[in-house]
Specification:
mainly beta, four-stranded antiparallel beta sheet, single chain, Jelly Rolls, six-stranded antiparallel beta sheet
Length: 165
């Protein structure tokens, strides 16, 4: 069950918009699509170091400083095809948090399956999550920032979904 990075993967690099794994960005409140040259502070490049390439980050306008990015509904996984999600993320040092949750169709609660918080980070990091679900599900990226000072943010880039998603 090696990770297949071929054309069967859906890759969301945010260069044009969201990819087909997500609904429209305007139904994903709190996130803004921008690049490192936007004048909004760090990160000043995407995860590959490109200053003009796009990523998502917390919108500086939001008072509550929380944001949710929700996928479309995925079909159940099976043994041959687990769903592997790989992504890059940036968290400012103080008070930022990024969580990935799983919402199964029969449940109205979101089960937290991964999280990280911004202790001495201020750098792009990569992570992979494997999801195994016997029923239809959505994946939710949610971010919070305790105090949003200038240059404090959480960002996401290059989300890849394997064939099993």
């Amino acid at each position: 069950s090696g990770f297949n990075s071929g054309s069967s993967c859906k890759r969301c690099d945010f260069e044009m918009d969201l990819c087909e794994a997500f609904h429209e960005l305007n139904s994903q409140p709190g996130w803004i699509r921008r690049n490192g040259q936007s004048g909004m502070g760090p990160p000043y490049s995407d995860h590959s170091g490109n200053h003009s390439a796009y990523f998502l980050s917390l919108s500086p306008e939001i008072r509550s400083s929380s944001a949710t990015l929700r996928t479309n509904v995925f079909l159940p996984t099976n043994e041959e095809h687990l769903c592997q999600i790989t992504f890059h993320y940036w968290i400012s040092q103080t008070g930022g948090k990024l969580m990935v949750g799983l919402q199964k169709q029969s449940e109205n609660t979101i089960a937290n399956i991964w999280q990280d918080s911004g202790e001495l980070q201020n750098q792009w990091r990569a992570n992979s999550i494997i999801i195994n679900s016997t029923e239809k599900y959505e994946v939710i990226f949610s971010s919070t920032m305790e105090t949003q000072r200038q240059g404090q943010t959480v960002a996401i880039d290059d989300i890849t979904f394997s064939e099993g998603c």
